[in-house]
Write the C-alpha cells for this entry.
Amino acid sequence: MSANCCCCSNHLNDDRYTRLNQVIAEYKNQPGSLIPVLHKTQQIFGYLPD
C-alpha cells in the first residue's frame, strides 16, 4: 500500500499505530494471542476503529 494513499497517510504520524505494531510484534506467532492483542489495542485507542 502506498504511503501517499489518503486512507493511511494520517496513520503515519499517529504514535498509537507505532505502539500497535509493537504489540502485534510481541504476540506474533503465539497461538491464542488474538484476545490479548485486541485488549491492548483497545487500551491504546480507547476503542477499535474501523
The two ends are 17 Å apart (CA to CA). The longest helix spans residues 15-27.
